[in-house]
Amino acid sequence: MPMLSRKADYALLILSYLHHHPEGGCARGIAEHFSLSRGFLANILKELCQKGFVSSHRGVNGGYVMNRPAESITLAELLEALDDGFRLAECSDHEGHDTCSLTSVCPMKTPIRAVHHRIHEVLRQVTLAELFPNTQSVAELIPLLGMLPDRSDIAESGHRSPCSAHPLESPSSGVTPLAEVLK
C-alpha cells in the first residue's frame, strides 16, 4: 500500500516542474514532460490552484506558477491539503476521529498512533525544496538518501551535489533538512 496517493504523487511532479521552471508552465507541457494524463493533471492543477499552491494565468502566455517558494511548503502541508491528511491506519487520525470498529479491543491502537505521529513529524520537517534537487542526476540523489557514500566525482560536471553546502542545511524556519531527518 503506497503512502502517497496518485494525486499527491502527481502534485509533487507538477510542483517540481514549476519549481525548476519559475517562469511557469502549461498543463500540456507538464503532462508531456512526465508522460501523464492531461485530464488528471488538469484536475490536480485546478486543486493546487484552489488550495493556494499555484496560480493560473490565461492567454497566449498563460500557464501555471508556484505561489510560494518550495522552501516554505512542507510535505505534510501538501498531503493534508490534497488528501485530507495523512493516516497510517484508520485509528491514527490525528484529529481523534475513530472509525475503526475494533478500537475498543485493539492492542495495536496506541503503538500505531505513536508511529503515525512520528511519521507526521518527519513529514512536517521535510520541505518540497528538499525533494526537488537542483539536478536530475541519480548519482547525486543516492548520497542524499544515505544509500551510498557521497560520490560527487561521479556527478555530472557543473552540478553540485545536494549533500554539499546548501542554504537549507541551516534553515532559519526551524525545518530540519531531509538529509538530517533520514540519518
Question: How does this structure look, described?
Answer:
The protein is mostly helical. It is 42% helix and 4% strand. A hairpin with a 5-residue loop joins strand 1 and strand 2. Helix 2 (27-34) packs across helix 3 (38-50). It is elongated and about 60 Å long.
The end-to-end distance, rounded to whole angstroms, is 24 Å
CATH superfamily of one domain: Winged helix-like DNA-binding domain superfamily/Winged helix DNA-binding domain
Spatial strand order of the main sheet: 1-2
- Structural class designation: mainly alpha
Mind telling me the CATH class of one domain? Answer: Mainly Alpha
Low-confidence stretches: 136-145, 147-173
Helix content: 40-55%
What is the H-and-E element order? HHHEEHHHHH
DSSP strand content: under 5%
Number of helices: 8
Using DSSP, what is the number of strands? 2
Shape: elongated
List its traits.
183 residues, mainly alpha, Arc Repressor Mutant, subunit A, two-stranded antiparallel sheet, 42% helix, 4% strand
Topology (SSEs and partners):
Elements: H1 6-20, H2 27-34, H3 38-50, E1 54-57, E2 63-66, H4 75-83, H5 109-125, H6 128-131, H7 138-144, H8 178-181
Antiparallel strand pairs: 1-2
Helix pairs in contact: 1-3, 2-3
GO cellular component, one term: cytosol
GO molecular function, one term: DNA-binding transcription factor activity
Organism: Tuwongella immobilis
